[in-house]
Write a structure and sequence with these properties.
With 147 residues, the chain is an all-alpha fold. The protein is 82% helix and 0% strand. It has one domain: Ferritin, CATH 1.20.1260. Helix 2 runs antiparallel to helix 5 and helix 4 packs antiparallel against helix 5.
Length: 147
């Protein structure tokens, strides 16, 4: 149960959940505000895939006796509030720039869990999800270079 999880594993679950919620909220904003069709398609992909990964993590967390936050962290809430103030091409640029930063951090988090985590199920989850995050990062890099 939750008491059996290492601090590293518990921190991974909590951070991964908060990051996932924030990225879903970012993608929802991008679907509404992006000027680029490519960016809106990317947002659709993020919504679908981050939604699926969030659901998998939530199921594991429940089995481990953890309750996950369904709200963005304070840091993520500020970022989302800032995004709401951008429009047009400025929104597109800020969204892609932030998506690059967030996915690079996420990949580091997931790789750390896969290499150093103690819970085998969480380690397998991290290994499974890392390629999805890398795919998102590669797509964001491609769009960033096209701006």
């Amino acid at each position: 149960m939750a008491s059996e999880l290492s601090k590293l594993d518990r921190a991974f679950v909590e951070k991964a959940a908060q990051d996932g919620v924030a990225e879903i909220e970012m993608a929802k904003l991008a679907r509404k505000k992006a000027t680029s069709t490519e960016l809106r398609h990317f947002a659709d992909m993020m919504l679908k895939e981050h939604g699926e990964t969030k659901d998998k993590l939530a199921k594991m967390a429940e089995q481990l006796g953890l309750r996950l936050s369904t709200e963005p962290s304070g840091e993520h809430r500020k970022m989302l509030d800032d995004f709401a103030n951008y429009d047009g091409e400025e929104f597109d640029k800020q969204f892609i720039s932030t998506t690059l930063e967030e996915h690079e951090k996420d990949i580091g988090l997931y790789q750390s869990e896969s290499e150093h985590g103690h819970n085998e199920e969480l380690k397998r989850y991290a290994v499974e999800i890392t390629p999805i995050l890398k795919k998102h990062l590669d797509a964001a890099k491609s769009m960033h270079h096209g701006m």
